[in-house]
Fold this sequence. Notes:
Keywords: Hydrolase. This protein is α+β, with helices and mostly antiparallel strands.
Amino acid sequence: MNPSQIQDFFRNDRFAAHVGIELLEVGSGRARAQLLIDDRHLNAVGVAHGAAIFSLADLVFAVASNSHGTVALGVNVSVSFMKAARCGLLIAEADEVSINPKLATYVIRVSDEAGQAVALMQGTVYRKQEALDDYIGR
């Protein structure tokens, strides 16, 4: 699958769409997306909920890890939150660190509009032997 097909495939991620995440770029082993924080994303103390930030990071993790056209599913993630975000645009970028036939590892950075780090996530996927094409139209 080419990057355009991967981007089209992930437009079917209904949860990401519900949250308001917009996928911006896809490449081999990488992805970029954004989320505009609004009232629905805030927790009880008025900052972006960790789940909203995690959801943004998780989408680019999924896109980057599936960008090779092979089904990849997360088996482990670790996230650190560095700075509270109250409003504005958050950008997440995923980059592949290592890949082999069964496992791949990614680093995901979430930044605010000023480029300041909001969160850092590391994730590992299990790469199945199924083609992503097999899931189109399911």
